[in-house]
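Hey, I was hoping to borrow your eyes for a little while. I'm sending you its amino acid sequence along with the backbone structure tokens. Take your time with it, there's no hurry, and the full record follows here.
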Amino acid sequence: IASDHIEAQDRGLLGGVSEARYFASPDTKSQQERDFHILIRGCSLDHKPEALLPPVFACRWVRLRAPPFKTTSSSKRTSGENLDPIEVDIRDIPAILSDIENSFTDRASLNRVSSSKFAGCLKALLKNKKDGNSIDVLIFGVENSLWVGQQFAADMKRIFPKLNILAISSNWILGMLQQAQGNIEPKN
């Protein structure tokens, strides 16, 4: 059970940074018997790193659940019908886009809350912008999400030319955060 591992760490039986403590995710019952469980340990990325504490983490925890799979009218098959999967995906696009658009009418949806917070951050950036080479907005991703991020960065740069917006591979970010041999130093 998760509490056994947390106690082992408290007794110094697990390795790692001494200030950072293991804890279970906020929605985990520590006495629940499971085949697996996830323990979290970390620190801030500030100039003077501080250990991540459960109450601080719990305030930032957002439980994500995928919406239930929906079959649209175009993806329903009748017996013996052999539909091309790409054609089905293309037919489903309007319904999926409609679902995304409708999610913004719900004030509690993550789409609406996230976009409002992002807009507030952009407003503050533009209001307090100082000249320099610092990165104002950093977007990262891998493969397709990186491509979408790069396009988003290009669009934002057209709308907000005073902001320094950068889109890079998340692998590059991970390499910069490593303090071991072989880490990558940004040069641009």
Observations:
- The helical segments are 2-10, 54-60, 85-103, 110-127, 144-159, 170-177.
